[in-house]
């Protein structure tokens, strides 16, 4: 098993995808590396690429606000990362090859953290963690037990900025995550 330092160095030196040539920063993750809760998104956006941290743009601020309202913080309660560690051009959806190149890094992160709960933020994270047969609009908010983890998918915070009508479901999902976390710890 890799150490955190080895994992971060492997991510930083990775050049498996052409997108690595245009990155400003590799975005490994942020938060409590011993948390029982992990959020996984799709890929870094423009602001994340600039700062080298996940979920720091508009969608990240929205997510932080929602989680703060539930008394959950990055520093103590959760770790947050993405399927991809580099920003795809124009924030497009990652290709299958890009995702497959980065998934070993995500698996190593999950092993190091050893969470009890994984929350997939959006359809891309859901696809690679729970499987291609599920649909975010149908299956968000449902709990799945897989590989020793409790896993739920919900909308990506960026989707809520585009479609505020999904916010109520999103908050309900986050409340369910908090309840599950309280039961498990």
TrEMBL record:
Protein name: Type-4 uracil-DNA glycosylase
Catalysed reactions, semicolon-separated: Hydrolyzes single-stranded DNA or mismatched double-stranded DNA and polynucleotides, releasing free uracil
GO BP, one annotated term: DNA repair
Family: Belongs to the uracil-DNA glycosylase (UDG) superfamily. Type 4 (UDGa) family.
EC number: 3.2.2.27
Origin species: Caldicellulosiruptor owensensis (strain ATCC 700167 / DSM 13100 / OL)
Domain Uracil-DNA glycosylase-like: 28-175
Signal peptide span: none
GO terms assigned for molecular function: 4 iron, 4 sulfur cluster binding; metal ion binding; uracil DNA N-glycosylase activity
One Pfam family matching this protein: UDG
Keyword 4Fe-4S: yes
Keywords tagged on the record: 4Fe-4S, DNA damage, DNA repair, Hydrolase, Iron, Iron-sulfur, Metal-binding
SUPFAM superfamilies: Uracil-DNA glycosylase-like (SSF52141)
Domain of life: Bacteria
Enzyme class: hydrolase
């Amino acid at each position: 098993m890799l150490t955190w330092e080895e994992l971060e160095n492997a991510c930083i030196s990775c050049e498996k995808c052409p997108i690595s040539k245009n990155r400003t920063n590799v975005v490994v993750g942020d938060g409590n590396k011993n948390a029982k809760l992990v959020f996984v998104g799709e890929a870094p956006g423009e602001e994340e690429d600039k700062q080298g941290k996940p979920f720091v743009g508009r969608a990240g601020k929205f997510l932080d606000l929602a989680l703060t309202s539930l008394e959950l913080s990055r520093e103590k309660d959760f770790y947050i990362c993405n399927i991809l560690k580099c920003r795809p051009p124009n924030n497009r959806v990652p290709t299958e090859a890009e995702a497959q190149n980065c998934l070993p890094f995500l698996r190593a992160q999950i092993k190091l953290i050893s969470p009890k709960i994984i929350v997939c933020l959006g359809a891309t994270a859901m696809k690679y963690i729970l499987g291609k047969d599920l649909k975010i609009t149908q299956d968000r908010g449902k709990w799945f037990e897989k590989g020793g983890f409790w896993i739920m998918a919900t909308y990506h915070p960026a989707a809520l900025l585009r479609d505020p009508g999904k916010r109520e479901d999103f908050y309900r999902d986050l409340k369910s995550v908090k309840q599950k976390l309280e039961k498990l710890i």
